[in-house]
Amino acid sequence: MNRRLLTLLLLLPFHVLFAQKNLLTDFPKGYTPQEVGKRLAHRFVGGKHALHAGKWISYPETFNWNGSLKFAALTKDKELLKLLQDKFEPLFTTEKQLLPIMNHVDLNMFGSLPLELYQITKEKRYFELGMPYADTQWIVPEDASPQAKEWAEKGYSWQTRLWIDDMYMITIVQTQAYKVTKDRKYIDRAAKEMVLYLDELQRPNGLFYHAPDVPFYWGRGNGWMAAGMTELLRYLPKDNKDRPRILKGYLTMMKSLKEHQAPSGMWNQLIDDPQCWAETSGTAMFTYAMITGVKQGWLDKQEYAPVARKAWMAMVPYINENGAVREVCVGTNKKNDKQYYYDRPRNVGDYHGQAPYLWCTVALLEKM
User: Fold this and answer.
1) Which DSSP category does 270 fall into?
2) Which of 26, 39, 236, 289 is exposed most, by the fewest CB atoms within 10 A?
3) Strand, coil or helix: what is 366?
4) How far apart are CA 368 and CA 365, in angstroms?
């Protein structure tokens, strides 16, 4: 190839240069979703429980488990599926005390896991275990706070608190309940809740504050929002009155994320701060949302497939030889202090990061 032709090729836009290959299916060895998913899912099987407050199965573990199950089912890996079911079995017996109580968004989300198992196995005991977690998000306990009761009177979950994390925690279990019952009340109320959070927390630039009193665009927090909208839009009926508003919020966010992607392909701990460190869990959530958006037709393939591919190719090297994802921000409460987000510890193998990586493998493998 002569130098002039090589120069012309290098000047071509990324999507034109790779026009002859599918950016979301053709990957080099070591980067395929089959390879990555298998490494991460099998690592989870042998991992220890990650407990919430030392008592109950945590939301990061729940979502890692869900991702592993979806990967096993999609790839028809019966051995892996059995290992994951066997890991769950003690929660019916000897580990029953680890089942989360039903009084907080970070705990009720657990219901999404047995409901995922129900969809795969059709065993009714999973259904019976999971549904109360969805129902109790809208059943106000007697000792609920006055503010919680006010939210309920307006038709929202009494667990509402206007933290962006909630829009995955609430959405995932309500969407799962809709999928297994076909009762629209579950997905309709999740949509109503989503619009509340969009109106309160999304800024004109498409990104989200961590909370109304915390004006920072925290990466994983925005990731929960991106993934929550994605899950909801996948299953929300076309005639739902809130769908246009949610789709608008999603599209506005994706446009902003495209503009804030670092040259490396990653997104930062504080999305709009190019000096902040690259963070893997948020990056994986954004990538999942974009892959799904392209495949569902919500996003223009020519515009967003290159963005999603670039992110995936940047993400994979953060997985170490043990299948553990590096540079994962630890669990993070809200705080009106920019330095606080800069200083958050970074873990290796934290389920906050392992889970969305698995979601990406499933999204890449799914045929829409």
Assistant:
1) B
2) 26
3) coil
4) 9
First to last CA, the chain: 38
Domain 22-138+152-361, CATH 1.10.8.60 — does that match? no
For position 368, what pLDDT does the model report? 74
pLDDT of residue 20: 37
Total residues found in the chain within this entry = 368
Tell me whether strands 51-52 and 56-57 are parallel, antiparallel or unpaired: antiparallel
Nearest to 233 by CA among 202, 191, 185: 191
- Let me know: does 207 contact 270? Beta carbons within 8 Å: no
8 A C-beta contact, residue 98 and residue 51: yes
Convert 260-281 to b/e letters by CB count within 10 Å (16 or more is b): bbbeebbbbbbbebeebbbbbb
Q: What letter represents residue 217's amino acid?
A: Y
Q: What is the pLDDT of residues 11-34, one digit of tens each?
A: 545 544 444 359 999 999 999 999
Q: What is the residue type of 100? A: P
Nearest Cα neighbor of 224 from 44, 53, 66, 59 is 59
d(CA 179, CA 160): 22
Run of H or E including 32 = none
Read off the pLDDT of each residue in 4-8 and give the average, rounded to a whole number: 50
Domain boundaries, given as residue ranges, for the chain: 22-138+152-361
Residue closest to 174 by CA, chosen among 159, 158, 199, 191:
191
| Rounded Cα–Cα distance for residues 239 and 235 (Å) | 11
CA-derived radius of gyration, the chain: 20
Question: Which residue, 50, 42, 96, 102, is CA-closest to 67?
Answer: 42
Q: Each residue of 101-146: pLDDT tens digit?
A: 999 999 999 999 999 999 999 999 999 999 999 999 999 999 999 9
Q: Under DSSP, is residue 47 helix (H, G, I), strand (E, B) or coil?
A: coil
Distance CA 112, CA 73 (A): 16
Cβ–Cβ under 8 Å, residues 239 and 188: no
**Paired tokens of 261:** 């992607």
Positive/negative CA dihedral, 354, 363, 98, 96 = negative
CB 287, CB 308: distance < 8 Å: yes
